[in-house]
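Would you mind giving me a polypeptide sequence along with per-residue structure tokens?
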Amino acid sequence: MKARCITILMCVLLFQVDVQAQFTVNDNGFFLAPETTLTVSGLSLTPSGPFSFSNNEISYSTKPIWGNPNESIKRVYAMGNPIAFKGNILISYYDNELNMNSENLLQLTKAGLVSEFLVPTNKSVVNPLENFVAEDVDWTNIKYLTLTNSGNVLPVTLIDFDASMQENEIVLSWSTSYESNSDFFEVQHSGNGKEWQTIGRVAAVQQSNEVHSYVYVHKSPLAGSNFYRLRIVDQDGTFAFSRITNAWKSQLSVVFFPNPVSDWLSIEVKSLSPIKSIRVVNPKGQSVYHTSNPQTGHYSENRVDFKNFPSGVYTINVILKDGSVSTGKISKK
């Protein structure tokens, strides 16, 4: 396929300037004549007919798309708004972006707004010597583009995966936008990010084209760093791992009780070395108790009279000597 540029100025702009791996056009946009190539950061679009591109942008990320059995290469393009395109699409890549994919099996793959990546034709032309993959397509709803091995299934099931500390537990939450023949999620935990142990299992919905949310509570996390990942298992036994997320459990030995409280709130401090002060804040953000010299153990000096406080949720701030703050919540009946 022989491509030409519209003008010399456009050739310089699109073929020589990377513009931080991003190309943006406003409402005025521009028009590409047939067989005229637009190249942005290794992605080349050569329409077979008239093509207009306006109020949009093209950018790329080095974060691969999760897949089975392999992830995509470490080059994923995103359109600001989905486009329809008929013509030739070419993606260039570097060897260090292959991400365990075999060059000879690379195929062009795309996704729409629901982020379900599919290899639609397996007709891509691979050139491992010049490091590019190209294909003549007639596609609609193109939001994302990347490369993956032929036969890979790339449903971007995970929208997010987060870990948050609540009281003395760590709550893991994740969402999927699409599931096909999924079986279960195996929750794995590590204290160092290298050695993993299975701590739980959550059943999957198996088939879904809608956003579905999951929650798992780790009731006995380690003091300090806690790393988590999901082993996502399909019904045929194949699996893939999610990205790793982590949460920190404070090593402070500070206990507040009872919770909820009706009269006296006791504050038990087992270790004073990192603690600078303790403050109780009411629902209006006003400080109702403060001590800059917490006592070790369970003493009357570390008690707060809640009898005359209005009902609501109060915040306990434990200020450390390094300036960081550990917080907790107390309910007043």
Notes: The two ends are 75 Å apart (CA to CA). DSSP finds one helix and 29 strands in the chain. The helical segments are 8-16.
